[in-house]
Each structure stands twice: as C-alpha cells, then as structure tokens.
Amino acid sequence: MKHQLLLGLALFSLSGSLMAAESLCQQKEQDIQHEIAMAKQHNNQRRVNGLERALTEVRANCSDDQLKTAHQTRIKEQREKVAERERERELKEERQEGDDKEKIAKRERKVEEARQELKKLQAEPY
Fold it and tell me: What's the pTM value of the predicted model, to 2 decimals?
C-alpha cells in the first residue's frame, strides 16, 4: 500500500513538472486552438479563419525567446504609459489647482486603466 502511494505521488509530481516544462509556444498554440473551438461553437467562420492563420504562423515561426522578448517589450511600454499618465495627471492638477475636478477624475481613471493593463500583462506568460 505504501509503495502504491509513493508511486502515485511520484507520478503526480512528475506530471506537474512536465506541465511546467511546456514551452510558451505550446501554450500559445493551445490558447489559439481553444479560441478556434470557441469561434466554431459560435459559428464565427471569419474568426476561425483568422485564428487558423495565426496558428499556422505560430507553428512555423514561434520561439520562446521571441515571445519572452516581445512580452517584456509590451510590459516596458505599458510601464512608460503609466508613468506618462501619472505625470500628465500631476501636471494637470497643478495647472487646474482643482478647479476642473471632472478632467482630473477622467485622467485618474486613465491612470488606473493603464495600471490595470500593466498588471494584466505582468500576469500573462507571453
């Protein structure tokens, strides 16, 4: 009984490490295949066609290093966007001295949206 339990635990941990070893390109391919299935389910042939082209491109040209580099670039650009919006907000607040609260609130919403997009990007694997 103990041997079966140990064997089961070993196999379970091995399968977890194999899943973690899956490449980013494989993950991306699986994500696209899932999207294709969803588009087919909703009878969206245009989306299916576009996703199938994307899948062909991923299979032909994808490399994990490219994905990591592109992802880091998007994160960097989003950080710059957040910083720029924060500078705009501070500048606007100083100029307005609180007179136009609607504009200040709008800018604050844009800063928060940019921050949320940054968090979303940082959570994605690619």
Answer: 0.60
